[in-house]
Hints:
Order of helices and strands: EHEEEHEHEEHHEEEHEHEE
Helix content: 10-25%
Largest sheet: 8 strands, mixed
Number of strands: 13
Radius of gyration: 18 Å
Amino acid sequence: MKSSEFLTADLTHLPAMQPADWGDLTPRFAYFISSPHCHPIKISENGELIAIGTAITHADTVWLACIVVHAAHRKKGLGNAITQDLIANIDRTKYKTIYLDATEYGYPVYAKLGFEVETTYTHMRKTGGAPVTSFSNHIVQFEENYLDQIFDVDQQVSGEDRSGVISDFAKSSLLYVVDSQVQGFYIPEWGDGPIIAISEAAGAALIKRRAMDEAAAVLPTDNDFAISCLEEHHFQFYRTSRRMFLGEKRIWQPTGIYNRISGQLG
């Protein structure tokens, strides 16, 4: 079946597509529609959404995001179809690497399309303990003069230039700053509230601050230090997912991700 552009009128149909353990799809797709960095698409049948997804473009990388097939229409090849259409709309000469985070349901589909597993993400939940009530005095509110440093920290860790999308959310960020140098950031209003840091002190402090807001965390399994920090705050493992890529393998630093942005952006 052929896909088409996802439109504002389609937002009202998203609750029927909502996976039980995902964040609310509606604000995410509202952003995808409004952003020049995103290309959301759909497959419909008799006026009903049956598959959706989006591509999110950065300087020379793309993330595929929120690929969902309606529960009543699974095992019809729709996941394959929407993923192939997303890939077909990407200029592979400009965007050398395509990333995604695969659920157990999506993994076989993406593997057949040539995606390779790069690492796994560890998913954790808070299971008790006293609420966090204090945090480091190195954590400060966003100021415009720190924006370029935020971009630099993110690029050091991710290996990607994601400044376009970061600019849309940076004003809500909390920064770990020492001697006027940004060592890490936490952006509560972006996806799942990413923490990106280039020092363990920054990562640990921002994990503690984020624990005031959130009872779940997802981060690369490679980041043993961050997992230990979360365990100290009574977070426990409950599942994994797979970070996969298609195209050029890139250098990035999984130990610099103390909470991923979301399944849509790593």
